[in-house]
């Protein structure tokens, strides 16, 4: 039997977002980008690329913080999440475009760094979930994590079976 979408509890897994891992990957990608850009005669592009990756990581950390604070409320609203997301993305995008404009053409590395970070974030988030789904064990915690917080429509929280 399948639960209708409107009756299903909200599940916010603490699974996949690993900021330290993403930071280390970003450092490695920055080093490679700086070497490649240096070989092409523009090492500053690699540095700006790294700044873009770090701006992406900062955005992801702020997303986690805002999701935690909004979902901790008794009645979380999609509207507050949307406003928060739109304002955060607008600020980071404007900052990246200002850097790109002031330090053009090398400053465009910031925009490319932001774009690549989104790809890294999706890949690093989706792969553990995908692996877990392939093993067929959807109820347990994912890859060393404690478990997901399940919030019902009435705002009550439950724990997954992996928390026992």
Q: Care to describe what's here?
A:
The protein is mainly α and 164 residues long. The protein has a domain at 31-70 and 107-132. 63% of the residues lie in helices and 5% in strands. The protein has four helices and three strands. It has helices at residues 19-39, 43-71, 78-102, 108-135, and strands at 10-12, 149-151, 157-159. The chain has a three-stranded antiparallel sheet, with no helix packed on it. A hairpin with a 5-residue loop joins β2 and β3. α1 (19-39) runs antiparallel to α2 (43-71) and α2 (43-71) runs antiparallel to α3 (78-102). The longest helix is centred in the middle third of the chain and has 29 residues, at 43-71. The two termini are 26 Å apart. Mean pLDDT is 78; it is low at 142-164.
Write a compact overview of the structure shown.
It holds the Pfam family ATP-synt_I. The chain has 164 residues and is mainly alpha-helical.
Topology:
Layout: E1 10-12, H1 19-39, H2 43-71, H3 78-102, H4 108-135, E2 149-151, E3 157-159
Antiparallel strand pairs: 1-2, 2-3
């Amino acid at each position: 039997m399948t639960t209708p979408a409107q009756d299903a509890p909200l599940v916010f897994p603490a699974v996949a977002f690993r900021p330290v891992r993403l930071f280390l990957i970003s450092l490695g990608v920055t080093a490679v980008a700086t070497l490649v850009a240096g070989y092409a005669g523009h090492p500053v592009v690699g540095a700006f690329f790294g700044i873009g990756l770090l701006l992406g990581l900062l955005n992801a950390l702020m997303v986690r913080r805002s999701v935690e604070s909004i979902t901790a409320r008794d009645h979380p609203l999609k509207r507050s999440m949307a406003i928060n997301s739109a304002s955060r993305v607008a600020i980071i995008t404007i900052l990246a475009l200002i850097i790109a404009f002031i330090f053009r053409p090398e400053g465009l590395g910031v925009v490319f760094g932001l774009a690549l970070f989104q790809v890294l974030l999706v890949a690093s988030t989706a792969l553990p979930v995908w692996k877990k789904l392939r093993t067929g064990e959807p109820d347990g915690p994912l890859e060393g994590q404690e478990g997901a917080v399940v919030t019902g429509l009435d705002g009550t929280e439950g724990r997954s079976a992996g928390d026992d």
